[in-house]
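dude i think i finally got it to work??
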Amino acid sequence: MTDHHDDSQQKSSSAEFARRYVDRLIRVLRRLDYEAVDRVIDLFLDARSRRNAIFFLGNGGSAATADHFANDLGVCASPEGIIPFRAISLTSNSALITCLGNDLGYEHIFSRQLRSLMRSGDVVVGISASGNSPNAVKALEYAAENGGIAVALVGFDGGIMKNIASHVIHIETEKGEYGPVEDVHMVLDHLISTYLTLIAK
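look at this
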């Protein structure tokens, strides 16, 4: 009987946690800056019209979002018959990343790739909950100083990246709230990519 009672309590506790997590996520989403989203969409469309690339980068969960964003823009939002987005994730080449990390230092894994790949007018999207990841900071600095257009998708207080980028979508949360920030960054991927897919049809 004790074990059954404990199981019931656990289920009730986890259900309550799920409700509170979703409620918190909804509150964060309601504060989304739609005008900032609109400006980033316009920037992506402008980059496509100029045949410029859009680079995505991040660490950990944000690296997964960078890969996902590049996939959705480069495939879903680039159907046959229209100019495709030149969407590139800087997180997906593990051999190159470990080479750069080992030889130059982990903080250079993205900026060094941009040195080889970025052209004037290209867009560089840094994704970071804290806004302070050294390699993402260096990448946005490189973009801003070398003719690129720096975009920051950040959380918490925005960190250093908020002050470097010319376009910012800031998901304001308490420091350490990685889950809701990363959730909303993925929502932004699907929101932006879905819109761009719809207008492409």
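The mean pLDDT is 95.
im so relieved honestly
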